[in-house]
Amino acid sequence: MTTPKTMLSDESRKQIEQLAREQQREPGEVLEEAVRRYAAACRLERFADKMGQRARDKGIREEDVPRLVEEVRRENAERDR
């Protein structure tokens, strides 16, 4: 069985241990946070790709976004009055 310790290069282990010392945390905590952040970044990237595709499917171009945002803000402000 491969353990996280054997999955990491010596350099990665050293970096994790150094960060843990600097932050007065356990190396496992540093590694868990790194994995959580990486997973969140991956989810955000997938979401952005999906929304970008939806926008392209609707014919919305990047240069349309500021105008559309302003329209929505104006509609929301009028609704909230």
Secondary-structure blueprint:
Blueprint: H1 4-7, H2 10-23, H3 27-57, H4 65-79
Helix pairs in contact: 2-3
Describe the structure.
The protein is mainly α and 81 residues long. It is built from four helices and no strands. The chain has a domain at 27-81. 79% of the residues lie in helices and 0% in strands. The longest helix is centred in the middle third of the chain and has 31 residues, at 27-57. It is elongated and about 55 Å long.
Structural class: mainly alpha
* Low-pLDDT segments, ≥5 res: none
Q: What kind of oligomer do you see?
A: single chain
Order of helices and strands: HHHH
Mean pLDDT: 94
What does the main sheet amount to? none
Number of helices: 4
Give the N-terminus to C-terminus distance in angstroms.
63 Å
- Overall geometry comes to elongated
Helix-residue proportion: over 70%
Radius of gyration, CA atoms, in whole angstroms: 22 Å
| Number of extended strands | 0
Q: Proportion of β residues?
A: under 5%
Task: Write a concise synopsis of the structure shown.
The chain is mainly alpha-helical and 81 residues long.
Descriptors for this entry?
mainly alpha, 0% strand, 4 helices, elongated, 81 residues
